[in-house]
Amino acid sequence: MNRLSLFIVLTIAMVCQAQDDLRLNDLEYFERQGVNVLVYSNSFNGGFNDEKNSGIEIIHHGVRTVQGGAVRLNNTPEQWDLVPTMTSRKVNRENGSIEVGLRYNDYDFDSRIIVTAKGKAVEIAVWLDKPVPEKLAGEAGLNIEFLPSQYWLKTYQIDGRLGRFPRYATSLTTTRPNSEKPRQFKGFKTYDDRGTNRFVDPLPLETGHSLTVATDAPDRMIRITSDDAELKLFDGRMLAQNGWYVVRSVLPAGKTGKVVTWTIEPNAIPGWIRDPNIGFCQVGYTPEQPKVAVIELDKHDPVQTGSASLLRLNPDGTTTEVYKAEVKPWGPYFKYNYVKFDFTHVRESGVYCIQYGATRTNDFLIDEHVYDKITDATTDVWVPIHMNHMYVTEGYRTWHGEPFKEGYLQAPESDHFDLHRQGATTDTKYKPLELIPGLNIGGFFDAGDFDIETGSNINVVQNFIRTWELFHPQRDETFVSQEQRYVELHRPDGKPDIMQFIEHGVLNLVAQAEQIGHMASTLSNSVLDNYHHLGDAASITDGLHYDPSLKPYEVSADGKSSGTPDDMWAFTTRNPNLDLQAAGVFYSAARVLRGYNDTLAERAQKQADRLTTEARELQRGSRFRRDRQAETDNDWLTGTGDGNYRNVARNLQTMLDSIPLKDAAYREKLRPMVQQYAEYIKSFDTQNPYGVPIGLGNWAGVNAVLNFGITVNYAHIYYPDIVSKDEVYRVANWLFGCHPYHNYSFVAAVGAARPKQVFYGNNRADFSFIPGNVAPGLLFRKPDHFENYDDWPFLWGQNEGTIAGNTQYIIFGSSFKNIVGTNQ
Ligand SMILES: [Ca+2]
Ligand SMILES: [Ca+2]
Ligand SMILES: [Ca+2]
C-alpha cells in the first residue's frame, strides 16, 4: 500500500468513524442514526412532580426508553419526591458537551452535570463545588431510569453476572426511620407507615461497575460503566406502580470536583430506519368521504416518494389491489418527513388495508355505518363508571363500591397537592375538620383520580345539557338508582341515561351550594397517601368518621368512627366566578330537569338566583359571564373585535350556539366570521400534515382538537356553503388513528380495528383501559419528539382521560354522527 492509498483508507475510516459517532446537532442534543441523547431539553418543573419526562433522556430507535438522568435524593424517586431545579444549561459546541446546573432549594444543595460525547458513547459526570450536605450524604446520587415495559423480561449483565429484568416487582426492600427520608413535595408523605414511623426503601437487584442492559435486544441494548462509582440497579415499581428501573450511583460524602463518572453507550443497529407509520382512520370511512392516509417517514428513509396501494380483503381469503397511486410529499414536520396517500375515489363497501413499501396496515372498513357507534362506549361505560358516591356494577364485575360514605370534612388551611389550596379562612360556618353534611352525593370522578373538581363537574353538566338539548338522545343502557346508590351498566331502566347523568352531576353541585353556601373549589383527598389510590374507589377511605380523640388506626366501640385521618376534605375558599359558573349551569339544569325531577329543578333554580345575587354583590362592578359573551359577540358584529383567527376560533362556537335562538339577520351577520373560520380551518393544512391544531404543551392537545372539531361541525351545520362537509372528517381522522408516532385510535375500545390498549384511568395499574376514554394524545417532548406510549399507561399528559374532555367528546361524536348521517 503506497502512502496515498493509505491516506485514502485512513481518511475513509475516519469519515466512517465520525459518521457513526454521537454528534451534538443543531437542536442541542446528541445524535447518531438510531440514537438521540437529550440533556435537559425537558427540565423538571415540579408542577405535578410527575417527572418521567425530564433530565437526561435517550430516544432509542424511535422510542424514549430512558429518562430521569439527574442528581436525585432517593434510590427510586416517586412522583412527589423532590426534583432538582435546573439553574443553568450551557451548550459547548467546541468540545461537544452540555452542562447543566441543578439545585435543591430545600437543602441548599447545588451540583453540575456535564455530558460529553465520546465516540459512540456519552460521558456523564457529576461535579460538586461544595460537598453533599450532611443531611443528604448517602442519599444524593446520580440516577437514570429505564422504561419497564421496554425492558422487562430482557436480560442484563453486570460485572459478568447474568440477570433478567423482572416482569413484576418482587425484589427486596428494607425499612428505615422516617427521619432519614428526604423531604417530599411540600412536606406531604406518599406512604402510610401504619404507625411504625419507618419508610420502605428498595434494595438493589444488583451492583457492579459494568452493566449491559438488554443484552438480547440490539435495539434496546445499552452499556453503562463507571470506574469511580458503584452502579446499583433498582426496580422503582417496589414503591409505586409507575416507577421505572433505576441505575444509580450514590455521590461520595465530603468530596468536591468530579465525583461520579459514567460512560453510557446505547447500541445502534447499523443503518436503522424506522418503519413507516401509516396514519389512517381505524374506525373506517364512509363511501363518500375524503380518504387520505398520512405516512410518517424516517428522515434517513431513502424512499420518500413512490406509490401506495389499497388492497381489498375478499371473503374467499384472497386479496385484490383495487387502487394504486403515487404518494404526494407534504414535507418535514419536526423529526420526520410526511407523504400522503389519497384513495378518496374508492367507494365500494368492503374490508381494506393500505400497503406502502413493505408496510401493510391492519384492516379497516369502508361502509355507510362505520361511525354509528363512536359514542356508545363513552356514554354506556366510561361515564357511569365515573359516577361518584354510587356502587357501580357491570355483568359479573363490580367497578367500585360506594365511595366516601363518611362524607367530607371542612379543609383546614393548606397549600395542598393536585393544585388545590385552602386559604386562611374557611368562608363557611364550619370549623376546620368539622363534618360538612350532605356532600357525599352525586358528582363524577375527575379523571384518573377520584376527586370532585367543581369546575370540571360544572363543565360535565353543561356538556350533558348541551347534548340533551341538541340531540335529545333517548339511549337507555344504564340503570341508576339514587335511592339505592346503585348503578348497573347495560340494564335499561326506562329513563334516558343522559338525563340521569345530568341529575347526578346537579345533585352534587346543588348540595355544595346548599350546605356550604357557595361552591367548593374541590372535594378532594386530605392525605397524599390515599390520593394516588389505584383500586376500588370505595376503599380509598375507611368509610368511618375521623375522630382525632382515637388513636391512629383505632376504631370506636360503636364501629362508626376511627382514628385514621383519611376522610376527604372540602376546599371552600369562596370564588364568585365559580359561583357564577355554577349559577349558569343551575339555570340550564332547572330548565332541563323540570318535568323530570321537579324538586331538583326548584333547588337548582333557587341556588342559581341566590348565587347570582351574592356573587354580583361580592364582585360589584364586574359583569355576569353571559354579558361578557354578549359583549364579545357585539364586538364582532360591529367590527371592533381584533379579528384574528385565534379570536374567531374562540368566539365562534358561542355565537353558533345562539343561532337557534336568534333571527335570520343574525345568521347573516355572522357569515364573514364563518368565512374567516373556513380560512382558519384550511390554515392547518400548511401548519402540519394532519390538518388539525396540534398542541405542544405538557398535556397533549385533545381538548383543543375536540373544540376545533365541534366548531367545525356546527359551522358546517349552519353554513354548509362556506364550510363543506369534507372538513368535518379532520378531527375524526386524527382521533381514530391518523396522527404521528403510531396509528392507534385514541378512543378506548371504540369501533376501531386498533384502538390504544392502555390508558391512564383508575385501572392503569392493570395496564388496561376504561372503554370510551379519550387519551390526551400526542405529548410533545422538546425539541422534536411526539410520543404516545401504548405499553405504558402512567404518563398522564398522554394517556389520562378527563370527565370534562370525555363529555366534550360526546358532543363532538354526536354532532359528527348527525352530519355524517345526512346527505347535505
Ligand atoms: Ca384531580
Ligand atoms: Ca337509564
Ligand atoms: Ca374515614
What does this structure look like?
This protein has 15 helices and 44 strands. The protein is an alpha+beta fold and 824 residues long. The longest helix is centred in the last third of the chain and has 24 residues, at 664-687. The radius of gyration is 29 Å and the shape is globular. Helices cover 26% and strands 25% of the residues. One calcium ion binds next to loops.
Q: Care to give the gist of this entry?
A:
This protein is α+β, with helices and mostly antiparallel strands. Helices cover 26% and strands 25% of the residues. Mean pLDDT is 93; it is low at 6-16 and 623-643.
Radius of gyration: 29 Å
Poorly predicted regions are 6-16, 623-643
Which percent bin holds the helix content? 25-40%
Overall pLDDT, averaged?
A: 93
- The spatial strand order of the largest sheet comes to 1-2-3-4-5-10-19-18-15
List bound small molecules: calcium ion
How many beta-strand segments? 44
Largest sheet: 9 strands, antiparallel
User: Which overall shape is indicated by the principal axes computed on the Cα atoms?
Assistant: globular
| Termini gap | 78 Å
- Which structural class do the helices and strands define? alpha+beta
Strand content: 25-35%
Question: How many H/I helices?
Answer: 15
